[in-house]
Design brief:
Shape: globular
Strand content: under 5%
Helix content: 55-70%
Low-confidence stretches: 463-484
Largest sheet: none
Structural class: mainly alpha
Order of helices and strands: HHHHHHHHHHHHHHHHHHH
Number of strands: 0
Number of domains: 1
Radius of gyration: 22 Å
CATH superfamily: Amino acid/polyamine transporter I
Distance between the termini: 24 Å
Oligomer: single chain
Mean pLDDT: 84
CATH architecture: Up-down Bundle
Number of helices: 19
């Protein structure tokens, strides 16, 4: 069994599966991919978590926290780019792990990504609900607290969070072109709002607010980096669109790297201005730190615009994350590791509609009934673990297939992948122990599912069920296929 669980799939096998009739539409280019990345990266991190990280962890040194998180993500992004250009398949890190490390590690990554996206979607939807309730309150409509908070936060259900997930799920089912067009509009609004804050805030910076610069020491800076790491989650979602990209060898690396660079620059500027406008301790308990900072210096109209921009920003994050989650489930199902329902392609919309619907229902339940703290921390640890495995996969594949054509090559291998592993490992260590325990429980559940179902149903297993699934069974709508 030990040998079998590390069986791999070749790059040619993965690519051939994407070329079968009935696949997804190839409509995305560098611009659309960059906008998808920005749409997913700029959201909860900049509009919600900056205040928490400044007040409770890093103080004005939040800028350094963002830089540390950016270095970790930058090293991982270079690894992702090499794989994305070489293997233009929708599974992202899951696919890369399957090729280099084998099925078992691919399953671990896929299981991590399910945790990352499901809980990230829930966390973002909860933040969206908070901004929405605030805007409604400003126009004289007070939503009842029991319908805008989870049971553990003084309510019964977070209904706005569930409703926005339902809307975004419908948009994703309708098709990638529609999702991309909506995302482009939203991202344009979001970037305009961020630039507005920079213009208004720059002239109101008081350098005295940057002292003491590092009130919680380096431990606080690193803890802050592990918290605001959530802000960078999203560039990996670009690679999940690989099967819908017109020229993946060039467009995917460009989209991943450009979106990360643009967002990193904006994060550093915004965090520096934010902590310069208002003393860092004033952000304690503030769910809308950017709008709060503008209110404190008298720009109430600017704060209102920022709130609207935050709604747009969080909506685009939901759009891209729901998009990415459905594509990962789609590829895992195509490989037989998940039931065939996740791999079905709707022939009208050319999207994995059933997968999108299922993940929409699950994430709506998460957003409606769980508190944001637990949800955000679980998102971070799942992502960091996936990044580490992808970095290791780059090193392994360079050894196993050194002559394989690579349209984009990660520089300074194995140094850059090793740095990604080290930085991500440090950030995992800085997360709360209870989060680490919950993650271990999640992994144990994943192992039970793998050995109880996926191992035997894998299309390359050679096990009991190896002949029961077609390599591309998602295109067969017959009753027999549905029961397999």
């Amino acid at each position: 069994m030990t040998r079998k669980i590390f069986r791999t799939k070749s790059i040619n096998e993965f690519i051939s599966e994407t070329q079968k009739e009935g696949g997804m539409n190839k409509v995305l280019g560098t611009f659309e991919l960059t906008m998808l990345g920005i749409g997913c990266i700029i959201g909860t991190g900049i509009f919600v978590l900056t205040g928490v990280a400044a007040a409770d962890y890093a103080g004005p040194a939040l800028v350094i926290s963002f830089i540390i998180a950016a270095i970790a993500c930058g090293c991982a992004a270079l690894c992702y780019s090499e794989f994305a250009a070489m293997v233009p398949v929708a599974g992202s890190a899951y696919t890369y792990g399957y090729i280099a490390l084998g099925e078992f590690w691919a399953w671990i990554i896929g299981w991590d990504l399910i945790l990352e996206y499901a809980f990230a979607i829930g966390a973002v939807a909860i933040g969206w609900s908070g901004y929405f309730a605030n805007i409604m309150s400003n126009i004289g409509i007070n939503l009842p607290a029991i319908l805008t908070n989870a049971p553990y936060a003084g309510g019964i259900v977070n209904l706005p969070a569930m409703l926005i997930i339902a809307l975004v799920t419908w948009i994703n089912i309708m098709g990638v072109r529609q999702s991309s067009s909506v995302n482009n509009v939203i991202v344009a609004i979001k970037l305009a709002v961020v630039l507005l804050f920079i213009v208004l805030g720059f002239s109101n910076v008081n350098p005295d607010n940057w002292h003491p610069f590092m009130p919680y020491g380096w431990n606080g800076v690193l803890s802050g980096a592990s918290v605001i790491f959530f802000a960078y989650i999203g560039f990996d979602a670009v690679s999940t669109a690989a099967e819908e990209v017109k020229n993946p060898q060039k467009d995917l690396p460009r989209g991943i790297i450009l979106s990360l660079i643009i967002c990193t620059v904006l994060y550093i500027i915004v965090s520096a201005i934010l902590t310069g406008m208002v003393p860092y301790l004033d952000f304690k308990g503030q769910a809308a730190p950017v709008a709060f900072a503008l209110q404190q210096v008298g720009y109430h109209w600017g704060a209102a615009i920022i709130s609207v921009g935050a709604i747009c920003g969080l909506t685009s994050v939901l759009l891209v994350m729901l998009f990415g989650q459905s594509r990962i489930l789609f590829v895992m199902s195509r490989d037989g590791l998940l039931p065939g329902i996740f791999g079905h392609i709707n022939q009208k919309y050319k999207t994995p509609a059933r997968s999108s619907l299922i993940i929409g229902i699950i994430t709506a339940i998460v957003a409606g009934f769980l508190p944001i703290g637990i949800v955000a921390e679980l998102t971070n640890i799942g992502t960091l673990c996936a990044f580490m495995i992808v970095a290791a996969a780059v090193i392994v594949l360079r050894k196993k297939a050194p002559d394989r054509p690579r349209a984009f090559k990660c520089p300074w291998v194995p140094v850059v992948p090793a740095l990604a592993i080290i930085f991500c490992g440090i950030l995992i260590w800085m997360l709360p122990v209870v989060t680490q325990i919950r993650f271990i429980v999640w992994l144990i559940l994943g192992l039970i599912i793998y050995f109880g179902y996926s191992y035997d149903h894998s299309i390359i297993s050679g096990g009991l069920f190896s002949g029961s699934m077609k390599p591309s069974g998602q295109h067969d709508d017959s009753p027999t296929a549905k029961n397999k």
